[in-house]
Automatic annotation (TrEMBL):
Residue span, Opine dehydrogenase domain: 194-343
Membrane-spanning parts: none
Pfam family, one: NAD_Gly3P_dh_N
Domain Glycerol-3-phosphate dehydrogenase NAD-dependent N-terminal: 12-113
Domain of life where this protein originates: Eukaryota
Catalysis: reaction(s): sn-glycerol 3-phosphate + NAD(+) = dihydroxyacetone phosphate + NADH + H(+)
A molecular function (GO) term: glycerol-3-phosphate dehydrogenase (NAD+) activity
GO biological process, one term: glycerol-3-phosphate catabolic process
Lineage: Eukaryota, Fungi, Dikarya, Ascomycota, Pezizomycotina
Keywords, in A-Z order: Oxidoreductase
Listed name of the protein: Opine dehydrogenase domain-containing protein
Organism for this UniProt entry: Penicillium argentinense
Region Disordered: start-end pairs: 374-406
Length: 406
């Protein structure tokens, strides 16, 4: 299959009209691209706000201005708008989008999942997209308030991974693959760091490290105030920050077990946000001193927030299971998953994006790594056993009645 030859992309469809989707739309429009923003009929997000403004999206902060945005709740129209589709729906909404996308012929479409959270595990046998790519984290720190999308900050770089060639589409030659990368890079205003495998992207997502300890350890304050406190400066006390750093150490250890050198959390924050002061020495210093993260309070309003339902179900659960496969107990990560299960009233291990749901429960760590794109250049794996592994994939078990709130 020969990809079209051009250096940039003039049209982009964004699936998901929440804060991140709106920030993406404003960013793309500010660079002259034609954007169509899709909102699910049952979850239209900011589309009514844009429609009430005559099709204009007003942005403040990093992308200040008013931008003409096409909107729709008809996925067929959204797919026709552009061969490049960026999804920004939370991970717990990905199954709904995946089921809908599987009804369309996407052989000429590139699907970019932001944030991925191992989306490829669920998608690789469900859609026939020309390419599926995942990023590690949202490009923006953003809120919708007062009829505007307020973009507090823009990350400097994103980790991204493109699926290995599959039997569903014709293999790209080196030139076509390089051209695809240039096209994808023109969609993002951030620097893209291309990863060797999906595991590298999944472990680079710092959201579970940042959000989960603080949400669970501030449960009383969240329920008493409905989130009326500064999540970073007030919620991430020295004790909470120590737990955060312990979770991060376990995340890094899982990466090393698979031959990956993942960036520590404080280093990541220093690299991706501009600060007027010297680089922060530890995570607590960052939480208290970051201007960007303390512009708004940003604390969860309840314990049904995406900081648990997304970051534990689709982040910590696969991390933990990957660690166990590599012989690592990850006790702090496991404790937080179990605590979240008690708080939320359902089993996160059962309903998360597990290896069992991906058909990899019986695989070795080496086989899992190969299924996720192969080893990095730094870490040749041991030879695989002769017996094949069942890599058939099914969607993970749907969530029960608990629903996430903003």
């Amino acid at each position: 299959m020969t990809a079209p030859t051009f250096d940039s992309v003039s049209t982009v469809t964004v699936i998901g009209a929440g804060p991140c989707g709106c920030a993406f739309a404003a960013d793309l429009s500010s660079r002259g691209k034609s954007v169509m923003l899709y909102g699910h009929p049952d979850h239209r997000g900011a589309i009514p706000m844009i429609e009430e403004n005559g099709g204009w999206l007003e942005a403040d902060g990093a992308f200040e201005g008013k931008y003409q945005i096409k909107t729709t709740s008809d996925l067929y129209l959204a797919i026709r708008h552009s061969p490049f589709i960026v999804t920004t729906v939370p991970s717990y909404g990905q199954d709904t989008i995946l089921r809908t996308l599987s009804q369309f012929d996407l052989r000429n479409h590139t699907l970019i999942i932001n944030v991925g959270n191992f989306f490829y595990l669920a998608a690789r046998q469900k859609v026939n997209a020309h390419a599926i790519l995942e990023t590690d984290i949202s490009p923006y720190a953003v809120r919708i308030t007062g009829g505007k999308v307020f973009i507090k900050g823009v990350k400097k770089s994103l980790a991204i991974w493109a699926e290995p060639p599959t039997t569903q589409v014709e293999r790209l030659d080196a030139g076509a693959e390089a051209n695809l990368r240039r096209q994808v890079e023109s969609i993002f205003s951030q620097n893209l760091v291309w990863c060797k495998n999906l595991l590298e992207v999944g472990l680079n997502n710092v959201n579970p490290v940042v959000h989960c300890p603080a949400a669970l350890m501030n449960a009383g304050w969240i329920e008493a105030t409905k989130g009326d406190f500064f999540f970073y400066a007030q919620g991430m006390s020295p004790a909470v920050s120590r737990v955060t750093e312990k979770v991060d150490q376990e995340r890094l250890a899982i990466g090393r077990a698979y031959g990956l050198e993942i960036i520590p959390i404080t280093t990541y924050m220093n690299q991706n946000y501009s600060h007027e002061c010297e680089p922060f020495a530890n995570y607590h210093e960052f939480a208290v001193g970051s201007v960007i993260h303390n512009k708004t309070k940003s604390a969860p309003t309840s314990m049904k927030h995406r900081y648990l339902l997304e970051d534990i179900l689709f982040g910590m659960v696969p991390w933990y299971e990957l660690g166990v496969k590599a012989g690592l107990p990850s006790p702090t990560i496991r404790s937080l998953i179990e605590m979240a299960s008690v708080v939320s009233g359902f089993d996160y291990f059962e309903h998360g994006r597990t290896l069992q749901s991906a058909g990899l429960s019986e695989a070795t760590s080496e086989q899992i790594l190969m299924a996720l794109g192969g080893p990095s250049d730094k870490a040749p794996t041991r030879a695989l056993p002769d017996s094949p592994v069942n890599n058939s994939l099914d969607l993970h078990v749907p969530l029960p009645t608990p629903q996430a709130v903003a």
